[in-house]
Write a structure and sequence with these properties.
Elements lengths: L1 H4 L7 H6 L1 H6 L7 H6 L4 H23 L5 H26 L9 H5 L4
Helix pairs in contact: 5-6
């Protein structure tokens, strides 16, 4: 509950129910642009879109690191698995109607102003 007190806007019950699918799209790569641009009026969708955008940036950085032989491959595989697990956690939270700050990326997303 503490994370929700730090959010600029709380999502209302109707907002959550009508935007669960949009929020879940936020964690599927480039599809983060759909809720980010189409649901600017929804605090719930924007919360998840910000986390999804940070996740996408982390995935791109991991892909670039994978170009480095050996060390990059190891870091890339571990990073890719980590990002997959976090994406699944985000999708589950979105469909449950929760605004949970995800590990690693949540702090960065909270600092974003959009």
């Amino acid at each position: 509950m503490e994370e929700q007190n730090n959010m600029p806007q709380q999502a209302g019950g109707n907002d959550v129910e009508s935007n669960k699918a949009m929020a879940a799209l936020s964690y599927i790569g480039i599809l983060v642009l759909i809720p980010l641009l189409a649901k600017k009026d929804s605090p719930y969708a924007q919360f998840h879109a910000k986390q999804g955008l940070v996740l996408l940036i982390a995935e791109v950085i991991t892909s670039i690191i994978m170009a480095i032989p050996l060390i990059g491959w190891i870091v890339g595989v571990v990073g890719s698995i980590t990002w997959l697990v976090i994406a699944i956690m985000g999708i589950v939270a979105a469909f449950k109607g929760e605004q949970k700050e995800l590990p690693i990326i949540g702090g960065f997303a909270k600092k974003m102003n959009m």
